[in-house]
Amino acid sequence: MRILHTSDWHIGRTLHGVSLHDAHEAWFDHLVEVVRSESVDAVVVSGDVYDRAVPPLDSVELLSDTLGRLCARTRVIMTPGNHDSATRLGFGSSLYADALVVRSCVAGVATPVALGDDAALVYALPYLDPEMTRGDLADGDDPLPRSHEAVISAAMTRVNADLARRRRAAGRRIPAVVMAHAFVTGAAESESERDIRVGGVGAVPAGVFGSGVDYLALGHLHGPQQVRARCLARYAGSPVAFSFSERDHRKSAVLVDLAAGHAPAVEVVPAPVLRSLSQVRGTLAEVLSGGFDHLAGTWCKFEITDPHRPERMRERLLERFPHALVTLHTPEADQRPLGSRRVTPASDPMEVLGSFVQDVTGSDPSDAETVVLRGAYEAAEALGRSA
Fold it and tell me: Is the pLDDT of residue 214 over 80?
């Protein structure tokens, strides 16, 4: 059996206010073509289908269209992540045709989706919020500890028991896949994931998943990567970059071939890049010198290091780089730790304002800036007296 592992679509996401709808459309066109050209038996989506619990209308329409195109060619197995509403994503799942399976309830963690004539089994674990699921997954009356390790361990106990029973009945080792949405200890993060760890209770040791399954299809982290575990475990990663920390990621999906008696074989399939990301730090003169003109077609983040904020800095950058999303003035002085100053009612307001300017720009305010600061302070004082 051949599955295509993907996750963290985050449909509806924006990048610094810019819609990623077109990037998602390009990704889904690519996904449908991979399913067709590679004869994929099932697509597994390990959580965070939407970017928020209540997605906008165009995101719902895009998912509906994509699932229709995929299900016309293969099966789709989908689980909610921590960004999704499990109830909304799973609405009507009992009515879906066999081509689409949405596993959003804790009760179904130990009931696999059979591919082919039991040629492979897929155990689809939804995102297991400790507070919401530690009672349902407990063996007795007392709830489990409030941690991801505890609830996933309990879910895997059920999965392993069911898998052992099915393998005994079949008299052979049926290949098995587990889908999970979690932060596995040792994996590399990026800036765009919502942290599900609170005091460390969100981290899940890889050993929790054991060695009984053949492939662990992980979701939550946006960087594609293999995780050191007792079974073959990978994060598919997000199909689109959601922060500048991901500018060097090579987005992809994972083709996994499963066959009884053989170790799983994987192939990473690169995702299309509608527009790449770049980050530049330097003075405004350096950035506008022509040496960075090749970045004009990328989404850019600029950190301008001039001691004083250049006049019309953002406007001048946008004239040369129309896709500049972030333009920051970060003079070299900003790299030094800011000094701590105690401000009391007795402090001279102009000294406080002057020290703020010095911290921000790396130099004392000029005479002209001092006039502006004094005028602003006196206007605020007058407003306070009239209130």
Answer: yes
* Domains of the chain in sequence order: 2-270 (3.60.21.10), 277-382 (no CATH)
- Exposure string of 345-379, with b = 16+ CB inside 10 Å and e = fewer, is eeeeeeeebbbebeebbbeebeeebeeebeeeeee
> Is the sign of the CA dihedral 184, 87, 243, 224 positive or negative?
positive
**pLDDT tens readout for residues 112-157:** 999 998 899 999 999 999 999 999 999 888 999 999 999 999 999 9
Q: Which of 56, 54, 59, 57 is nearest to 9 (CA)?
A: 59
Mean of pLDDT over the chain: 90
